[in-house]
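Title: Comparing notes on inverse folding

I've been comparing how different people in this forum approach sequence design from structure. To keep things fair, I'm posting one structure and asking everyone to reply with a full sequence. Here's the target:
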């Protein structure tokens, strides 16, 4: 079981369906959160279809035109995220195609949209990624399919190149002096993208001369625009080097690659130290420069090698290796390790020697051993270049388990072994052969595995056992791929006879022998030799796989069951003898297959017969056999699960038939709880079934309105089974249940019940965010919003501060944070009477020209300057603001005056603003936290006197004008600090008295 923390996707899906159709149109903030949530579904969980459904649901509920455009872009991004996270080649290319079409459709359909630039950027970005995906796919196909993919790749890149041309023209039309920094960055990135895609087109075409020339021109233009030596120009230099390398103009390619490396971190240690001192480079600065050494070393080594400049090539290869050792940098998977492998191959091809310390970063290349010996006397610090290449390849192999870099490293190991002519350890030989094996280089793999077997001669038993069985297993699989069945059978047989002893491979080898001989015998009927081999394979399977005829039948039944062939599976399971170890599991699977056929009652009878009769009969006791005991435990836990599963399905069916309440028969739900409630405690190791039982128990409690009990089951699910498939759907179900009930409570006017349910929803999110190892942005934002709606400001504050601190550096969230989260944080701080903390946030938001601040933000800004009063007439409490200058107070008063003039006179909102203006002057005059200017008391009087004249001495109303209390039963939400009705009238009276 993994660590007991809530995964990000599980907490994320809690927010699904947070607004029901039929309620009021959502606010911008709510729509923004829903959009972020939809992106999270696609990016963090892989629910591309569900994310699209969320966006379409938001559209159906009705949103402003501007937000509708934003939704359109988000739909494109969802396909993009899905493609980038998809591993299956065909599905990935399909998602890329959908993303590309969605971006194009949005761009064509919304020529005047504010989101058009964002969509155009996405179109270019996704085209480049799609083209790379197609290139990878071309490696796995042959013939006409390769031609089709090549044509598609050129088509995608050509359309994207045309779009970059249009976008570049638009930005070039802006005078250089008038371009903002963001426009400059966009222009540089577009030119880099255009250059890369033209390079890719040239590589794909039979004659790419024109495309290469176009790429070089745009990249040279970029160098001129961005300036020599800038990071952008270095990226462009590297790409120009790639253009020349693709045309095999190696001298020019070398010059550009070398310029990048030399300008980033020169090979001369003295020059590097001088650069550090003169530029006062910190570690972060060094690491940025290191990225460019990683970027261009591979191309530089290849170019120098092609030119035959061996010594210089080795010098730069060791420059990469030495610099990393000396400075303590890390290799990146995208740039560093490929360059490191190129450096290793350069050293291998050189045939020279290396002298110096490999750990302290001062190694040098020499043409022969004598030269190396003259430089370094110690034999311990002299190595053949092949040995160093092998060491590097092994490092890359070790540090990149499970990805393509490991395969490339293993291929290089194989090359080293073939060239070095020295004795190599079996482990290294195996890694080399394994690389060819995984790349399906079958002939090379077999040769490598034979070298492994040769190296095992004379080795100790432990080493032979470690490598022999798995080597024969891979040889057998390789022969199978080549269609050499008899050779495969013999390899598998050797692995489980002569080389028997590895528990991990004895069984697979025996199974492989048995499987292949079945096929061989079918093709050679009557051949006595083949018949004898087949019988031997059966014997070995029975012995080593613990699978005699009964176990073989069980495995056949498993295959049939997984294929959905229920009748066939039932028939094969039924052939298992009662003495077989898998007999009991076979009985249970017969019941399960019966259930899958739709015969629910018959399946339940079979399960109950096993659980109540078979197990209770002493004759069926497993005795002291540990194998039988384990098999029984497995069968029992499976049977108990499906017994509860049937009960849950019956309860769900009753709920679907309940057209009124949609709950169904409570007795059926109670039965589910009775059967499954303790399953997770009794069988914690059943990680495939236990999450499902917890979800079913949770569903039963929800149907019975037992929220607390449902929360317990849900808590166990997300805390203990974070990676299960049930975690996400259970979260959605729980949240939807609460949200739906809250919606009904609102419709029925039951405010207390709606508030109670909102608190439950907030608590659910709180639970998810606390247990998540890294809570996501939408989750935290939604939780904060719920606490704000509940008036739980002290709970909202730390969450919003965490959101701003944690996600503030993420460019894609910058606008959302500025528009929603920061205003919410500032408002929360004001509600907690922390005006001094809120003020700098609000000041920056109001001054920011990128977005117009909302009315709420403007009012909060004024309050943060002037402060406000709370409490009633006889218990007035002064909340000081953070304003200290007359300019700040004058600005606040002017702003409040504009807001007051924008609303209907004599309405509650107007009264509230007028009071706040008068109060601002009062603070200004009396230094109650602001600048002291007693003359401003006259301004207080000037604000209040006309109202008193119209409304009466107690502001009670008159002359047909309603008083404050008559027209202010409750203050608007954005004026939560100002009480309506009688309290506001009392404040008017109080302030008038203060002004006298």
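Reply #1:
Here's my take.
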């Amino acid at each position: 079981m993994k660590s007991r923390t809530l995964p990000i996707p599980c907490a994320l899906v809690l927010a699904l369906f947070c607004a029901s159709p039929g309620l009021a149109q959502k606010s911008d903030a709510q729509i923004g959160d829903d959009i972020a949530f939809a992106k999270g579904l696609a990016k963090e969980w892989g629910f591309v279809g569900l994310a699209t459904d969320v966006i379409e649901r938001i559209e159906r509920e009705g949103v402003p035109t501007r937000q509708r455009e934003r939704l359109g872009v988000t739909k494109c991004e969802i396909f993009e995220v899905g493609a980038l996270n998809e591993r299956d080649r065909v599905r990935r290319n399909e998602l890329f195609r959908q993303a590309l079409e969605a971006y194009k459709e949005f761009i064509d359909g919304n020529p005047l949209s504010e989101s058009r630039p964002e969509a155009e950027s996405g179109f270019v970005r996704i085209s480049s990624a799609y083209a790379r995906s197609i290139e990878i796919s071309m490696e796995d196909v042959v013939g006409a399919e390769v031609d089709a993919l090549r044509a598609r790749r050129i088509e995608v890149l050509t359309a994207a190149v045309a779009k970059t041309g249009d976008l570049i023209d638009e930005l070039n039309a802006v005078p250089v002096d008038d371009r903002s920094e963001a426009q400059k960055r966009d222009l540089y990135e577009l030119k880099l993208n255009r250059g890369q895609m033209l390079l890719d087109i040239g590589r794909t075409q039979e004659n790419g001369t024109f495309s290469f020339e176009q790429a070089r021109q745009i990249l040279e233009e970029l160098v001129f625009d961005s300036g020599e030596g800038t990071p952008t120009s270095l990226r462009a230099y590297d790409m120009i080097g790639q253009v020349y390398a693709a045309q095999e103009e190696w001298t020019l390619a070398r010059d550009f690659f070398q310029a990048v490396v030399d300008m980033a971190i020169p090979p001369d240690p003295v020059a590097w130290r001088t650069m550090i001192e003169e530029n006062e480079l910190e570690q972060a600065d060094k690491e940025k420069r290191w990225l460019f050494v990683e970027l261009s070393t591979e191309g530089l080594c290849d170019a120098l090698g092609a030119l035959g400049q061996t010594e210089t090539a080795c010098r730069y290869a060791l420059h990469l290796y030495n610099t990393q050792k000396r400075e303590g940098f890390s290799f990146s998977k995208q740039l560093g390790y490929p360059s490191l492998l190129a450096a290793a191959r350069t050293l291998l091809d050189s045939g020279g020697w290396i002298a110096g310390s490999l750990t302290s970063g001062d190694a040098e290349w020499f043409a022969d051993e004598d030269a190396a010996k003259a430089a370094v006397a110690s034999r311990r610090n002299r190595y053949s270049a092949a040995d160093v290449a092998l060491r590097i390849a092994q490092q890359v192999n070790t540090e990149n388990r499970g990805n393509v870099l490991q395969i490339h490293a293993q291929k290089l190991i194989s090359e080293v072994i073939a060239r070095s002519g020295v004795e190599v350890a079996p482990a290294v030989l195996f890694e080399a052969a394994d690389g060819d094996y995984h790349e399906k280089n079958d002939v090379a793999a077999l040769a490598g595995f034979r070298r492994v077997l040769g190296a095992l001669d004379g080795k100790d038993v432990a080493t032979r056992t470690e490598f022999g069985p798995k080597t024969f297993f891979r040889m057998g699989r390789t022969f199978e791929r080549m269609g050499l069945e008899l050779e495969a059978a013999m390899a598998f047989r050797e692995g489980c006879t002569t080389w028997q002893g590895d528990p991990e491979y004895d069984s697979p080898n025996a199974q492989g022998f048995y499987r292949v001989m079945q096929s061989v015998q079918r093709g050679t009927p009557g051949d006595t030799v083949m018949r004898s081999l087949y019988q031997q394979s059966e014997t070995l399977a029975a012995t080593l796989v613990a699978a005699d005829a009964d176990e073989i039948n069980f495995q056949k039944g498993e295959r049939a069951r997984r294929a959905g062939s229920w009748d066939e599976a039932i028939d094969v399971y039924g052939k298992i003898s009662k003495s077989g170890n898998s007999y009991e599991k076979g009985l249970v699977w017969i019941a399960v297959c019966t259930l899958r056929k739709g015969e629910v009652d018959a399946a339940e009878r079979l399960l109950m017969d096993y659980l109540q009769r078979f197990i209770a009969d002493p004759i069926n006791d497993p005795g002291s056999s540990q194998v039988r005991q384990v098999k029984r435990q497995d069968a029992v836990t499976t049977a108990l699960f499906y017994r509860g599963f049937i009960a849950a399905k019956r309860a769900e069916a009753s709920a679907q038939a309940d057209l009124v309440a949609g709950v169904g028969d409570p007795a059926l739900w109670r039965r589910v709880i009775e059967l499954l409630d303790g399953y997770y405690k009794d069988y914690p190791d059943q990680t495939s079934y236990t999450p499902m039982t917890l979800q079913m128990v949770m569903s039963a409690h929800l149907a019975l309105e037992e929220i607390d009990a449902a929360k317990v089951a849900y808590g166990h699910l997300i805390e203990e089974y974070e990676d299960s498939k049930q975690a996400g759907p259970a979260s959605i179900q729980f949240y939807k249940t609460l949200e739906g009930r809250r919606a009904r409570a609102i419709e029925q006017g039951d405010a207390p019940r709606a508030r109670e349910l909102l608190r439950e929803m907030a608590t659910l999110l709180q639970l998810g965010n606390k247990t998540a190892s890294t809570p996501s942005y939408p989750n935290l934002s939604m939780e904060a919003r719920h606490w704000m709606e509940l008036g739980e400001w002290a709970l909202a504050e730390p969450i919003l501060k965490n959101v701003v601190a944690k996600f503030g550096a993420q460019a894609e969230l910058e606008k959302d944070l500025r528009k929603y989260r920061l205003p919410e944080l500032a408002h929360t701080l004001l509600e907690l009477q922390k005006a001094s903390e809120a003020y700098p946030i609000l000041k920056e938001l109001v001054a920011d020209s990128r977005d117009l601040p909302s009315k709420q933000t403007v009012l909060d800004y004024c309050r943060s300057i002037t402060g406000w009063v709370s409490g009633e007439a006889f218990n007035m409490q002064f909340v000081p603001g953070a304003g200290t200058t007359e300019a700040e107070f004058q600005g606040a008063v002017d702003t409040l005056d504009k807001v007051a003039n924008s609303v209907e006179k004599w309405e509650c909102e107007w009264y509230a603003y007028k009071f706040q203006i008068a109060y601002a002057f009062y603070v200004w005059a009396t230094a109650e936290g602001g600048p002291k200017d007693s003359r401003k008391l006259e301004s207080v009087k000037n604000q209040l006197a006309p109202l008193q004249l119209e409304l009466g001495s107690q502001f009670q109303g008159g002359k047909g004008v309603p008083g404050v209390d008559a027209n202010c039963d409750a203050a608007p939400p954005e004026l939560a600090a100002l009480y309506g009705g009688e309290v506001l009238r009392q404040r008017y009276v109080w302030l008038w008295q203060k002004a006298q």
